[in-house]
Structures are given as structure tokens and as C-alpha cells.
Amino acid sequence: MYAGRNYQAQVVMSESTRYQCMHCGFECDAMVTGIGEGSGRSPYFLDNDGARDRARMDASAGASNNMHYALRSAVCPKCGKHDAGARREVYVLSALRGLLFGALLGGVVLVLFKGSTTGWGAGIVTALVVMIAMTISRAQRMLTGAILHP
Ligand SMILES: [Zn+2]
After folding, report:
1. Closest CA to 15 of 32, 35, 28
2. Gap from CA of 15 to ligand 1 centroid (Å)
């Protein structure tokens, strides 16, 4: 059993900034919003303040990262193109995280079925479904939030 506190934080950041298209150089004002989530633990209730701060810092870093990618991947109002590199980075990063959680849950299913053939099948299917679902939902969250004002 875990004795201690587990802090969760969610940070929403908004900033008005400039957008510049990497293809045609078009510039305009933009409003970017990023949402970040973070957690911090204080085992045995030591350092509760530190854990709360870590949760908030984690969430702030996530929100700022979200804003960065949302702005970079916005579709240009003039030429209709976007920064494909930014989208690729987001999908790769999200897939890595999704793979980790997918493998964990797939492993749990495998253990529940005691490593039988059915267990391997169910474990692999669980891992794939979790990975794909997490990758898509996380990538979509990271790529949205930029509103351009041409
Ligand atoms: Zn453009």
C-alpha cells in the first residue's frame, strides 16, 4: 500500500502571439491555448508542498509544450499548408507513450490469462488497442488550441 499523498494538477495556459507560416511566410496574430496535466507524490506525507509544486510544474510544462505544437501545426490561412514535421513529432512522442501503457496493460491481461495462447492473443490485442487509442487522443489534444486571426 502506498502511504502518502498524490497530487494532480491541471494547468490551462493561453497566450496571444504571432503565427508565421514556414512555407509562404504569411504572418498574423494568433491565440494559443494549451492544457497540461501533471502529478506529484509525497511518500509518507513528507514534502507535501514539493509534491504539489512538482505536479503544477509538470502540468505547466505540458501546457507550454501543447501550445508550442498547436501553433506550429496550425494550418496556414493563406496557403493551406502546415508544418508536417511538428505533426510527425507529436505522433511519434504520443505513440511512444501509448506503446508503454499498451505494453503494461497487455502484460496485465497476459498475467490474468496465465500466459495461455488465449492470453497472448488477448494481451496483444489489448496492447494495440490501448496504444492506438492513446496515441490518437493525445496527439489530437496536442495539435489543437491555436486560433489564427488573419
Ligand atoms: Zn502559408
Report:
1. 32
2. 21
Q: List, for residues 84-132, the tens digit of each pLDDT value.
A: 999 999 999 999 989 998 999 999 998 998 878 888 899 999 999 999 9
How far, CA to CA in Å, does 130 sit from each of 34, 78, 99, 107, 123?
24, 37, 8, 12, 11
What are the boundaries of each domain within the chain? 4-149
How far does the centroid of ligand 1 lie from the alpha carbon of residue 103, in Å? Answer: 40
* Distances from the Cα of 128 to the Cα of 26, 39, 45, 107, 113, angstroms: 40, 26, 37, 12, 17
Residues at Cβ < 5 Å from ligand 1 ion: 21, 23-24, 26, 76, 78-79
Ligand 1 midpoint to CA 147 (Å): 15
Cα 18 to averaged position of ligand 1 atoms, centre (Å)? 14
